[in-house]
Amino acid sequence: MKSLILRYGTNPQQSPARVFMKSGADLPITILGGSPGYINLLDALNAWQLVRELKQATGLPAATSFKHVSPSGAAVAVPLTDLLKKIYFVADLELSPLAEAYARARGVDRMSSFGDFIALSDTVDVPTARLIGREVSDGVIAPGYEPAALEILKAKKGGKYAVVQIDSAYEPEAATETREVFGVTFEQGRHTRAVSPADFANLVTQNKELPAAAIRDLTVAWITLKYTQSNSVCYVKDGQTIGVGAGQQSRVHCVRLAGVKADLWYLRQHPAVLNLPFVPGVRRPDRDNAIDQFLQPGVTAAEKANWANVFASLPPQLTADERRAWLDTLTGVALGSDAFFPFRDSLDRAAQTGVRYVFEPGGSARDEDVIRAADEYGMTMAFTGVRLFHH
């Protein structure tokens, strides 16, 4: 296929729209189901690069859940605990390693992942297809599909679900990439630098402890940030992102945004949340919304009145002290930043979410202040010397 005509571009008023290869070669993608749109394919091609690099770097099946050209979650195949299976709503499913990777990528921030575009590093099997089949999603890209898995996906959304197959051997021919903005063409070298454990060798803190699991988690953060709209930071725990902050103009606001998401992920594991008395038959998206609201402080009486449709009885919310006591048990979190921390405030916020391992490029005039903060919290911090802006 040389060219693919799209219904419209970023918005319905932007047409005509298509994707094609400037070289005249065939597209590296094949549409097996549905009709992906312009934003779908932007998500798909960025997401595919992310999971491909995660698989190359870790050797593990990888998945990501993309929304608006940034990942809402990404993960490698680390076995799920029974607790995580419960909060990700997959306890009733048979899960393959690839399905576990997607359950993690989707489950960490289910509200942001609603209507996502999925990328998977490996051939899609039936367990993964069944998991995708019952979630609200716009499409999936992968290097291949088992026949039975493909039939499950092609039946989704009445046959309109976008199923995209990409040539896993495809590499862009040109070493440069171009973009046109307002009639002006930009050109730059493609960001092809690979991830290596050596990126985390320059440990600048007093604490030099960096176990293999931490290197894996820092690697997940590194690659996730490479395909996240800058400014961006990423919290990772046990091979999955637990908080992604994207597109913020201030570094500390990005850290706070991602930190709130990570906190909510962990608070969802609190016994009070696990035992919420849902009305039978409540759909998963409605549960997600109700849990998110339950965990927000300052819920109004009018908002609580809506809980009658979701909860069999009105549960008491967690107090500030109960929230803090629970969050204080979260430890061993990794944090990556796509550029240096200009002030120590980002480390002060990160410490509230159990961060122990950090990487950033370094190079700020206040590097010593940031290092001092990391030392105060007993963190291990690496300066990579590599900036990861993505626009």
Task: Note down, in words, how this protein is organized.
By secondary structure, the chain is an alpha/beta fold. It folds into three domains: 3-166, 3-Layer(aba) Sandwich (Cytidine Deaminase, domain 2); 191-267 and 327-383, AICAR transformylase, duplication domain (Cytidine Deaminase, domain 2, 3-Layer(aba) Sandwich), CATH 3.40.140; 275-317. Helix content is 35%, strand content 21%. It is built from 14 helices and 15 strands. It has helices at 38-58, 82-87, 97-107, 110-113, 126-133, 147-154, 212-226, 251-267, 271-274, 284-294, 301-305, 320-327, 345-351, 367-376, and strands at 3-6, 17-20, 29-33, 62-67, 70-76, 116-120, 137-142, 162-166, 176-181, 184-189, 232-237, 240-246, 333-337, 355-360, 380-383. The strands form four sheets. A six-stranded mixed sheet has the order 3-8-7-6-4-5. Strands 12-11-13-14-15 form a five-stranded mixed sheet, with helices on both faces. The relative contact order is 0.11.
